What we know:
CATH topology: Glutaredoxin
Radius of gyration: 18 Å
CATH class: Alpha Beta
Strand content: 5-15%
Number of helices: 9
Helix content: 40-55%
Low-confidence stretches: 1-5, 225-229
CATH superfamily: Glutaredoxin
Amino acid sequence: MANTTQLEPLTIDIVSDVMCPWCYIGKRRMEAALASLDGEVPLDIRWRPYQLDPTLPKEGKDRRQYLDEKFGGPDGANRAYQTIRDAGAEEKIAFDFDAIEVSANTLDAHRLIRWAGSQGTQTQDNMVEILFRAYFVEGKNIGDDDVLVDAATQAGLDPDVVRRLLDDGADREAVETEIDVSRQMGVTGVPCFILAGKYAVVGAQSADTIAQAIREIAAQKDMPESSST
Length: 229
């Protein structure tokens, strides 16, 4: 059996938006998939930005108005969100959609996730988790600079540096470009798990489906080297 510590890690780019409830569910299912793999495949996991609604202003939009425009009102939203609530309950996510007062523009949240990534994959993953929880459980406006600085502090980033970067517009264009690249690659919905830079698992698939895809792609990735003539 090959020693996995000597293999090149399989890259997983998770294209996601932190205002997307299915992305939160997808994160839980990815975590369950990784637990079932138990280290058998070395991985390099990176969170990539996406915006479901880039038209939202920096300050966001009143949630009731947003739901009226998107679903025709709270009743339509409740029907649409029931499946999400049920799926969230299975993953032990306590979605509180009623607590959300502002539908947030997530561009600056993605900048924060990008900066967290410079501190390592675990810090980036923690940052994503904090933002998901802030929005979907605590009802915070994750487009607000004070909320983002607080989230950064929780993840161990320097709050003064983060506030300065937010004010200076650092990496805004880079994040927008990365989102455009995902769209050009054909990503039209999230979450989207891109394995080895070219194989996509679209949607919040089950943990078993994600784990099996990782195993299959990892095996394919290692075949040329072992079967070359």
